[in-house]
Structures are given as C-alpha cells and as structure tokens.
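Researcher: Sit down with what I've pasted below and flag anything odd:
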Amino acid sequence: MSILVSTLGRYLTWRFFKTIAAVFAAIVGTIYVFDFVELLRRSNSLHGVTPGYIAYLTLLRTPTVAEQILPFCVLFGTMAAFIDLTRKLELIVARSAGVSVWQFLLPPVAIAVVVGTFSVVAFNPLSAMMKQRADIIEAQLFGRAGTVQGDGTLWIRQSGIDGEAILRAANALDQGTKLQSVIAYVYEPDGKFGERVEAATATLEPGVWALQNAVISAPGQDPRKVGVYLLATNASPTDLAESFLTPDSVPFWALPRMRDESALAGLDPNGLNLQFQTLLARPLMLVAMVLIAGAFSLRFFRFGGIGKMVGGGVAAGFVLYLVTKVVSDFGEAGILSASVAAWSPAIVGSMLGGLALLNQEDG
C-alpha cells in the first residue's frame, strides 16, 4: 500500500503541477494581451513610441499582475485537475483502493507551499525590480506613476524636531525632493494642530523643507505671508525616493529595511509592513485555495450538479479575494494591524476549506 501511495503521489503531483502551470500561463498570457492593447491605445498620440517599446513596457508590468492572480490560478488549476482525474475514473479507482481525500490533497498542498515560497523569495524580487522600471517608463510617457492618489494628489506624512506634519502636493519632481502647489498641515509636539502653510513650491534641504512664498494660517490669527517658511523634517532624499515607490515595487528582501527606515524618518510604513506580511502569508493563502478547490470539486461526482459546484468554488475564491482586499485596506489605513490584515484571510480560508472537507468526507 505504501508503494501504491508513493507512486500515486508522484503521479498526482505531476498532474496538479502541470494543470496549475497551464492555467497560470493561459491567464497571464491573456492579461498581457489586454494590457498591451490598452497601453497601445494610451500611447497612440505619443510620438516616437513604437509597438515594440510598448510590448517591452507591458512585459515589465505583467509579473506584478501575475503575483496577484496566482491564488486564482492555484484554485482553478486544482479544480481542473480534480475534475479531469475523476472524469477518467482515476480518483474513483484510488478511492476503492483505500486512498482518502487527505492523501489526494497532499500533492496539491505541497505544490501550493513550494510555489508560494518560490514566488515570495525568488519571483517577487524580480517582479519588484521590473515594476520599478515600468513605473519609471510610465512616468516618462504618461506622467507620474506610483503613489499618486486617484486625483493625482501626493501626500507625505513626516516628522521633525518641531512635531509632525502632513504635506499635500499637486506634483513632485526630482524623486520627491521638490514639490509644487504645496499645503502643509503642521502639528505641535503634543499632537495639537498648529497651523496651515500654503506655498507655491517646497524644496528639501538638509533637515528642513523650504516652502517658498508661503501663506501661514493659524487658529485665531490672521493669515500672513512669508518669503520662506522652514519646516523641520527627519526625511532624507533617499527616504523620499523610497517612499514614492509603491509597496509592490519593493523586493521582498528589502521590505523590512525600508519599513524601518520609513518609520524612523516619520513616513507612514503601513503599506510596506502590510506588503511584507502579505507575502509571508502567501503560501498559506495558496493552501487555502487548494482546500476550497477540493471542497467544491470532490463532491459533485457523487451527487451531481457539476456546473453548480464549479460555480460555487469560483464564487468562494472571489469572495475570499474580496475579503482579503477589504481587510488589506483596513490594514493599510491602520485600523487593523498588518499581521492581522495579512494573515486572517488565509487562516480563515484554510479553516473553512478544511471544515468543509471534514464535513463531506468524515462527517
């Protein structure tokens, strides 16, 4: 029996890996084509931009998207593999030989752990470097990419010897060291709001922001104008350059260092910390997808309703994805800790998938 299980295990491992890889390649290829067409449309009015250059830019952008859709590839690939194995009666024969559902799940779970770990320690650093290059090219072609808000506004939260301040700028130049159309909300060391400073430009100098032609408004006082307003800061040009990187463009191995340096500089480290914890939780998230796939693809062959069960598995995967996004938004806003926001969807998804399988097979 041990020889049967060992041989079956190697066979199932290859089948699951091949199916997941095929699904991954198909989805990533489709995303590449659609992204390429969209970038071609956006660059249509730009002179000197060739389709080959746009294809290169699309290639740089694709790995980051591939990381995001990896859990769905594992979900769809695992379900497809179980469906194919059962359609060919291979799992039915294995069941009759005494192989349990938990033994069926060992190969895809092992693949999920290995793929998840590899994607974090090896693929993510490559993806992040390509994303950084893509952001630079996008900024040159279409304007600034990365940390801008939906309306194009830039926000910087920083601290200095005089207290904290929040800077709002319409645009940033020279890697964030020069700001345009700046509004600074300055707080006293005890956290009480101090004054509002509006200036045409702001330049980072050693230890201070120099706001040119500033208008200062403080509670209970009339607005006054000054030629230069100096705002103390702990941020360095390197800190600012790194703060304008989106968390998904920072390699996994550099995230702890950049998170700590951002916190020391008074910049908001929540996004970097959340990204680090999310990457750590990725293998468990892929395991959760395997368990959900098993819960929805091992049952219908005995009870009927193939389409309904497959649809249920896909819906469960998307619900888990939406919950992950909502919880991540809470974590980035500081409402939840980064660890809770990153790990809770994977833990809950794994527990629910395992509970469903226990109910179906052993209940």
